[in-house]
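Allow me, if you will, to draw on your knowledge of protein folds for a short while. I have a record of one protein: its chain in single-letter code and its fold written as discrete structure tokens. I should value your view on which stretches of the chain appear to form regular backbone elements. Thank you for your consideration; the sequence and its tokens are set out here:
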Amino acid sequence: MRSSNRTLDQEAKGVGNVYSFAAVNTLSFQMVIGSPMILYAKSLNASATVLGVIAGMLPLMVILQIPAARFVDEVGYKKFVLSGWSIRTVFVGLMVIVPFTAGFLPEESRLVLILVLLFLFNVSRGISSCGWLPWIASLFPAKMRGKFLTREATMVNLASFFAFWLAAFVLGAEPAPWQFASLFFFSTVCAIISLAFLRRIPEEEKVEADTRPPRPSLSEMLSARPFRKLLVMNVVWALANGGVLTFLVAWLKSEGSWTERSILMLTSVTFIGALTNQIIFSRYLDRFGSRPLLLSGMVIWTILLGSWTIIAGGMISSEPLFIISLMFVLGLGGSMVNLSNVRLAMLAVPDVGRSHYFAIFSVVSSVSLGLAPVLWGILIDGVSGLSVQTKFRFEWNEWTVLFSLLSLLFVVSFFLCLRLEEPRSVRWEALTRFLLRRSRARYWMRAWTRMTPRS
């Protein structure tokens, strides 16, 4: 009895450390792979292609999980993750030095240095991250994993919101190199603190499996129709979604003439939108399935990129209140798609060979997500200088070409979502009936039905 109580206390303490690690780790990585790093690269006159490379490094390095997975079980999940996170912290610390070299190094050299350090940072993170989910799965029972994922996402969004406001306060309107260095130093301190929380998380339980299910081949996995349809949809969705926020930040800086402080405060609104989805809409996932929320998110993204196309073309002025609402919708729609997409993947993947299906799903989606900003950056640089004025007072330039192309990809993603197969899903009629019954619109509908003639 005493040993069981000790185990429960250890798990309770471990849960608190996991959430603390998620929050502090978010404060660290948002400074070096988020909008603050994009703004620093932009201050070094980085091209759109370079910005795309910076945005695509993180998801591209997920592919390193495949060769690293064979060593995780031998080393141990906790030791493997802790080693990778420690190495990653060293590279973050070296980034602090780069802004101080402005006195004797040209902008091109500083940009190369920061790219090399970002590459090494993402390589160490990509290798060590393959032990994170198995480690968490061994600590949390199946009935607690959904609650853990929701709480962790909430901590990440709250910490991201705070990180962007802090960065906005530090950078101000016209930041000097030392101000970027102070953000990288803050990231280093948070990374060291996150290591302390990481060490306090209990180690995984060692489970020896006598028999393992046979590993399914790639052709066998692609022959599963629900999984194949979901995989194709995710490739198109990743190509459309990859780098959207990066190039919106670049447009706001170069074309919208927004200051660094305003851009970071504006970007923080996306996390409020994501939290809104987690609080209000995500609770209907289990009742109505993933497809209604997924399709709604795709519609939101299509309208969103269409709005940005019109703004970039000069037909609508970029009023601050309108831009703030678009950023809120961006976070709301992104959270809708991500949450419903992961849930649908859990249903589409069969029980036999589940880990291999998830590995293919994660790597294909992440590689597409990483290649997208590189491709879009090359597109922007390729059509740079384009200016074609139409009779509707709409200008075709590099930004309108990009945003309109992304809008078309979101339309394709929407129709691919219609073809997805989901067990235990409900019809749109049932969902509409439920929403009308729960909302105030039922009072207006009741008055309308009373006025209509009855036979």
Observations:
- The CA atoms of residues 442 and 448 lie 10 Å apart.
